[in-house]
Amino acid sequence: MSMNAYEEYMKGIVGPMREELTSNGFTELTTAEEVNRHMSEAKGTSLVVINSICGCAAGLARPAVIEALDATAHKPDHLVTVFAGQDKEATAQMRNYFEDTPPSSPSIAVLKDGELAAFIPREQIEGYTMEDVRDKLRFALEENASG
Questions:
Q1: Element (H, E) at 131
Q2: Partner of 118 for a Cys bridge, out of 42, 102, 110, 129, CB 3.0 to 4.6 A?
Q3: Domains of the chain: which residue ranges?
Q4: CATH number of 3-144
Q5: Helix axes 55-71, 3-22, angle to 10 degrees
Q6: Continuous segment of H or E residues that includes residue 5
């Protein structure tokens, strides 16, 4: 398979995974510059989803995030996402903002004024129910988002 055919194949697979978040209000950050701009301008609480194509954890993370947002009055000020394995520079740059946390995808971060306030790594997604992940995130939002 040529690189162009592979890239087209992957776009077909990841497109719906991207859309699951973007159609629910998330802004996709696809370059390191976009990540830096968001982090320098974003005041308040940012919910960052490191999206992924990887297995059951990715299939749980996206719906759990959407349900957590629906289930709480404590809404973050910003909803952003980067896609691990696809937008590599953007993902690496976002991870630099919480570098004391081992890389994990999918994962969910809550940042308050640019500082990591809560982090849900893959290990706390994979093997759990969607409701478990939703409730972890809802609790993190209630602790950190103003509403």
A1: helix 130-144
A2: 110
A3: 3-144
A4: 3.40.30.10
A5: 30
A6: helix 3-22
pTM: 0.92
* C-alpha to C-alpha distance for 61 and 134, rounded to whole angstroms: 8
> What is the distance between the alpha carbons of residues 89 and 99, in angstroms, rounded to a whole number?
15
Give 19-43 as a 3 state SS string.
Answer: HHHHCCCCEECCCHHHHHHHHHHCC
Catalytic residue among 42, 54, 71, 92: 54
Catalytic residue among 55, 56, 85, 102: 56
- CA nearest 79: which of 145, 133, 132? 145
Can you read off the two tokens belonging to residue 82?
A: 């980067």
pLDDT, one tens digit per residue, over 83-131 is 998 999 999 999 999 989 999 999 999 999 999 999 999 999 999 999 9
Give dist(CA 128, CA 136) in Å, integer. Answer: 11
* Distances 117 to 22, 47, 53, 59, 74 between C-alpha atoms, Å: 23, 10, 25, 24, 14
pLDDT tens for 83-92 read 998 999 999 9
Look up tokens 């910003």; give the residue.
Answer: 78
- Indicate if 39 belongs to the active site: no
Would you call 54 a catalytic residue per the annotation? yes
